[in-house]
Design brief:
The protein is an alpha/beta fold and 408 residues long. The chain folds into two domains: 226 residues, no CATH class; 152 residues. It contains 15 helices and ten strands. A five-stranded mixed sheet has the order 2-1-8-10-9. Strands 4-5-6 form a three-stranded mixed sheet. α3 links the parallel β1 and β2. α12 runs antiparallel to α13 and α13 packs parallel to α15. The chain starts with a helix and ends with a helix. 36% of the residues are buried.
């Protein structure tokens, strides 16, 4: 069993689980708080802090523990150089088995509620919120945090070019049926800290909160900073391009990602996919700002540090082919296309034959369509025709499968 499974479990020459966590820490401003979603996100971060002494000014908070009173209490104490987190509610308000373990939504005809007012009522144990014997309730679907715009500007925390997006209030819509303790503690800290301390989330934790923060975050490296700015277009991420360029091209580590001796399983490859996605967002942001030369530098850096020879190109790289053409890197663009389209065709044909139309099939199919679109866009008709023929062969197989199924 050891001989047969050694290659799948050998971790020699692999550093990126540690480096990925290091990169998250380096994405954050001094004295920051970073919320993470689960164990795999968090333990490498703690390793960097506890063992290697990296960014001990920061506080890493994992949401799965943040639902407990002992962990909220721990965040109220200093750890290394990280100062205690300020809260309006007391530790007794967060006690296990108390009325704030889970606050279900109760429709009381209240359209919205001020966050500071809500916290004040909870702190006073206001009986109007105790509609259940052992639990307070959330009486609204929308919680509002008022913003002192002058104070925010005085802190200089909003990146240049985003001042017009500063809002006088942030509106957090309830996503589920209520607030967990982790949601209450995060909102408490957000309101009480008054922007004096940088607050970040990763993609996992952003999705796990039961209030929607997505319109109030901006990418800085691999992390997303919560700021009182409103993203008017949810389809386009806000990106602090200056901070992200500094972090991703100068501070981040990418050890071993060009070492073909290392074995990377799917979970491990996801770390790389996350970094490639961050680069894609950064590059989009640079192009929107008209910084074509910096976009060229970033996209070439991305392909250099995370090459196909160790971790195969994915759908993010297919998107970046368009960028390569746009910034004048035609040779690299064609190299990537010639690697990706035969592989995507083989994968889709194999999965179609197996009648497996899972996410892997959908991604490979999308890659073929994206490459075809880009090639015709930049007048690469000969290669574009080859990719088009791949799609035609695939569609023929799919039509045959559909017709056969309809006969039963």
């Amino acid at each position: 069993m050891l001989a047969q499974n050694w290659d799948d479990h050998n971790r020699n020459h692999r550093y990126f689980s540690v480096d990925s966590a290091y990169n998250y820490l380096q994405s954050c401003a001094p004295n920051a708080v970073l919320y993470t979603g689960g164990d795999n996100d968090t333990f490498p971060l703690w390793y960097n802090q506890e063992v290697e002494g990296v960014r001990t000014d920061m506080r890493v908070i994992v949401l799965s523990y943040y639902n407990t009173d002992w962990y909220v209490g721990q965040s109220m104490r200093q750890t290394y150089e990280s100062q205690p987190l300020p809260y309006t509610l007391t530790l007794d308000n967060y006690r296990q088995g108390g009325p704030n373990d889970y606050l279900p939504y109760q429709d009381l005809g209240i359209k919205e509620m001020d966050l500071h007012q809500f916290l004040d009522l909870l702190k006073k144990d206001y009986k109007g919120l105790r509609l259940y014997p052992s639990a307070n309730v959330v009486p609204t679907k929308e919680i509002v945090l008022k913003v002192d715009v002058d104070h925010v500007r005085s802190l200089g925390i909003v990146p240049e070019g985003f001042d017009s997006l500063i809002v006088p209030e942030m509106r957090f819509k309830l996503k589920g049926g209520g607030l967990e303790k982790k949601d209450l503690a995060m909102l408490d800290f957000l309101a009480t800290s008054n922007w004096e301390r940088p607050i970040y989330v990763n993609m996992t934790s952003l999705d796990q909160f039961n209030v929607d923060l997505s319109r109030y975050v901006i990418q800085e490296g691999n992390a997303y900073r919560i700021l009182p700015i409103f993203n008017p277009n949810p389809r386009i991420e806000l990106v602090n391009t200056e901070a992200s360029m500094e972090n991703m091209l100068k501070k981040f580590r990418y050890r071993g990602l060009d070492d073909t001796r290392a074995y990377y399983n799917q979970d491990y490859r996801n770390f790389v996919l996350n970094h490639r996605s961050s680069f894609a967002s950064l590059i989009d942001g640079l192009l929107l700002e008209g910084k074509t030369e910096q976009a060229r530098e970033a996209v070439m850096f991305c392909f250099e540090k995370m090459p196909d020879k160790t971790i195969q190109y994915d759908h993010v790289n297919a998107r970046l082919v368009d960028v390569l053409f746009e910034v004048g890197e035609k040779e690299k663009a064609l190299e990537v296309v010639n690697l990706m389209w035969p592989r995507a065709e083989a994968m889709t044909m194999h999965l179609a034959a197996e009648q497996d139309f899972s996410r892997e099939f959908q991604i490979s199919y999308a890659v073929l369509n994206e490459l075809q679109r880009v090639l015709y866009k930049y007048n690469e008709a000969e290669l574009g025709k080859k990719v088009e023929e791949s799609l035609e062969r695939l569609n023929t197989v799919l039509n045959i499968r559909d017709n056969n199924r309809s006969n039963f």
